[in-house]
Queue: 2 jobs
Job 1
Amino acid sequence: MQVNNISKSFVNRKKKKIEAVKNVSFECRSGEIYGLLGPNGAGKTTTLRIIATLLKPDSGAVIVNGLDNQKEPDKVRAMIGFLTSDMKVSGNLTGREFLRFFGQLNHLSEEKIEERTRMLVEMLDMADFIDRSPNKLSSGMKQKLSIAISLIHDPDVIIFDEPTNGLDIFASKVVTDFLKEMKRQQKTIIISTHIMSVAEKLCDQLGLIFNGQLVENDTIENILKKHEAAEIENVFFAYANSMGVIQNA
Amino acid sequence: MLKDALIIMGKELKNIFRDKRTIFSTIILPVVLFPVMFGIIGLITKANEEAKAKAEYTVYIESTLSQPDELTKVIDEIHKVGNFGIVNDGINEKAIESNSTAVGLKIGKNGDIFVATVIYNSVKEKSTYAAQKIREALMNLNSELVSAELLSRGINPEELNFVQVNDMVVGVSAENGNVEEAKAKGQFTQILAVLVPYFLLIYIFAGSMGLGIDTTAGEKERGSLSILLVNQVSRTSIALGKMLYLMLMSVLTSVLNLVGLVIGLYLEMSFLGEANMPFSIEIGAAGYVLLFITVILLALLSSGIITLIGSLARSVKEATGYITPIYMIVLLFGISTMQSEGSKAFYYYAAPFINIIFGMKDIFMGTFSVANFLTMFIVNSALVVLFVYLTAKIFNSEKVLEVTTE
Ligand SMILES: Nc1ncnc2c1ncn2[C@@H]1O[C@H](COP(=O)(O)OP(=O)(O)OP(=O)(O)O)[C@@H](O)[C@H]1O
Ligand SMILES: [Mg+2]
């Protein structure tokens, strides 16, 4: 999966132009986890939405498995499992029924839906609450259900925006272990986060994003070496200071 | 595409019928509420009428009649029409004012003519009723005196008719002969031709309004619409699926409401002793098919416009703000066309919503014309397609992600 030079700006309510993403390029191969690390408002969600075809970039292109996501958005969506924190399941169906519904929309056979459901329920530890409806679930349970829904069709590319947001340490571990398992299954995984420890433990490649600009795009090791730093946090604060974004959000 | 739309529709239906409140408000309430409401109104009215008829009244009489048998005749007539106690020592205005079952009668004679004044308290129902009865008694007396006078001049009053009128009924209600039955059916069909289009219009629009806003702008607010949008399902299917769901729900609620309403009206009328009105509409099998098509068109049109606006709006509040004025306009259409007859000029059938009302009236009144119906059908179908297309376009644009929650 390649992100080539994408830019995106919004016009806010005061008619001011906000450049949310500026010339961002990176690449993520199958069996790799790419992490976008940046403070609030840096442009992480916008970048991921562009990859998932929900937003069109002003310039640049995203290629997924050789397909341009603007030219063939439907095919690209079929290959992607996408989740952001503002996406929330709601309604009176049970978790299992939701999985079945999205399985049907992805044209999976009933057997396949059952098989995927069984697998996801087990891997994400959802057996206790899968037959309850979302309004009877805690936010952590809902997040797990959302993850399962986004992956019901077994996509090659997984794009998760802050997947551990709002989760306690146990639920977080379930999710990160799950992502590691997905990596083992040769998926292409892109996550965004502002939690350093998650980035450090999980990601093969890291993109540091500030004010819409990708200031670093390399392995953690290389980034640390380049800055002669012991931890990513130090690099992060150095950039934040030099770019004057500490109190931005 | 249609398959995905049906999957989405099915999911929405399943979701809504899990909700006990929905079942109550869409099914139980209309089917039970209207009959109960009208039934109670009928019962209360009936009980009230009976109470008035059974009550004992007092009539204060102030008579200047010189012949004693003249007053006796008046009093006899009063006794025939109701339960009246006679107090023949002048008008007691205080008593009439304070006592609801009291009336007064001043009666005298001007030459050969009886001159009477009825005194009653018009604020009190029973007093008004009693005054009405006294008037009735006096008119009976008048008829008797007229008959007696005619007979004394050698004329039989029964032979005094020089014109005789018979009715013959034509049109849909007359098909199987019997004139009295046809008249009654015609009357019922007229009532329905006025009521049904109006109620369907309101129920279908109102029925899809709440649900429609919830399934579009509401889902946006809750963040569950974007889950649907990141899937490979086409946006046209999403738009169509939501519209079909709304259409089904609004047709269901409106039909149930209508059934409840008709049963209710029938109950009320039968409590009031008017049950000989036939409980059927004579529009023929073709009429029912055309009516069904029209109702579906109306439901699709309403769901289409509501889905479109709900998808465009950034919050439930905004959507409600946009849709309410449209609802008002539709209401106004309904009210302003309620009394008018079918078969209007061509352009009435080119205007959405209005053409549906006239289309339905035509079916009830037997003024149906193929050209007009086709115009209505084509105009509304084209609009429905346009609404689906525009909604799909909105789902495809970045705007659909914009949510304001204040
Ligand atoms: N639809 C929109 N209209 C206007 N401005 C927007 C829109 N979406 C995002 N922005 C702006 O673009 C910038 C980047 O936002 P984005 O959501 O991508 O940041 P983020 O890195 O995900 O932040 P967070 O960690 O808070 O989620 C912000 O300044 C935001 O206000
Ligand atoms: Mg974000």
Job 2
Amino acid sequence: MAKIKGDILVNVERCKGCEVCIAACPSSTIAMSKEVNGKGYHFAMKVNNDCTGCMNCAIVCPDGVITVFRGKVE
Amino acid sequence: MEEPFVKTEIRKDENIVYKRTNLLVDRPLSYCPGCGHGVVHRMLMETLQEMDIQDKTIGVSPVGCSVLAYDFMNIDMLGAAHGRAPALATAIKRLWPHKFVFTYQGDGDLAAIGTAETIHACNRGENFTIIFINNGIYGMTGGQMAPTTLPGMRSSTSPYGRDVQTMGHPLKITELIANLPGVYYVTRQAVHTPNHVRKTKKAIRKALEQQKENKGIAFIEVVSNCNSGWKMTPVQSNKWMEENMFPFYPLGDIKVDGKLVEKKETVVKE
Ligand SMILES: Cc1ncc(C[n+]2csc(CCOP(=O)(O)OP(=O)(O)O)c2C)c(N)n1
Ligand code: SF4
Ligand code: SF4
Ligand code: SF4
Ligand SMILES: [Mg+2]
């Protein structure tokens, strides 16, 4: 049966590591990286496959660095 | 670095459901990590995009952290002297009545140095939209006390907390201007959770749509964080804002269609 799944793409170099997206995610999909980006910020990254594509993280991200995808998987 | 948990079968252009609007210029915002200014900028630009009025809109940026708003919003903009945005917007709207005109102002800009311009533009019933970012502090200059600073709230110029006996009471300028006949729509919103962001966007849409009717000022206050000025992490500052700012600055509509909203939420309690 086809299921709706989501995915996010974080613009790592533009992420400022504020962590606001973590609190907004209902499926605990986001955590901060151990590495830092070119500006020295830890950045948001996916830590599970439970994303539903609800867009919460992207809407609340102050820097608008998250792109959200939603689609059917078999 | 290898990116874990990529859903390659979903990560395709045709599956994009949310993407940063191209009405925001493709450059990093100058704001601190977690600052609400960026969210309000994005909601405003998304609304202009959805209304297809990018080329029909003129914005006025303030002095404050958002002084560079014209570098981020891909529309026609002018920068006003500190607090004078409503005067400039008055001229713009009167000269181009068919343009959509807004000011974007902080609390220091709108409720301190620009109080006269704010009140008189509202009282004259000019037909533009005011977007007011209230973070209870002068963010840009290093977190000094503003008229909006809460009683007892620490700032760099009230290090022991605002003492209302000597420093005066916080000014609820939004409730004040709501009583003026030239003001048609007044609401207070926030942008720290997805639902609050969605409501703020709806309010911006409503305000801009109303400009077509020439009924007077639409005034949207956004209670926002200044985690740098408050000296907290962004997530802590959002929690602090809910616990301290919202009881004093309750969210919700204050005036709709020219009529004050009778609601317990908007009853002013000190
Ligand atoms: C005439 C004048 N007076 C004072 C200043 C210094 N100044 C710059 S920004 C600012 C306060 C900005 O605070 P606010 O409007 O709340 O914006 P925020 O940075 O908090 O978003 C002040 C006093 C100035 N630039 N011009
Ligand atoms: S789109 Fe929704 S589920 Fe997916 S990461 Fe963002 S907040 Fe979490
Ligand atoms: S909200 Fe945006 S800027 Fe902040 S950590 Fe998440 S992705 Fe990065
Ligand atoms: S100083 Fe405060 S208002 Fe200014 S960008 Fe930083 S967090 Fe935002
Ligand atoms: Mg301020």
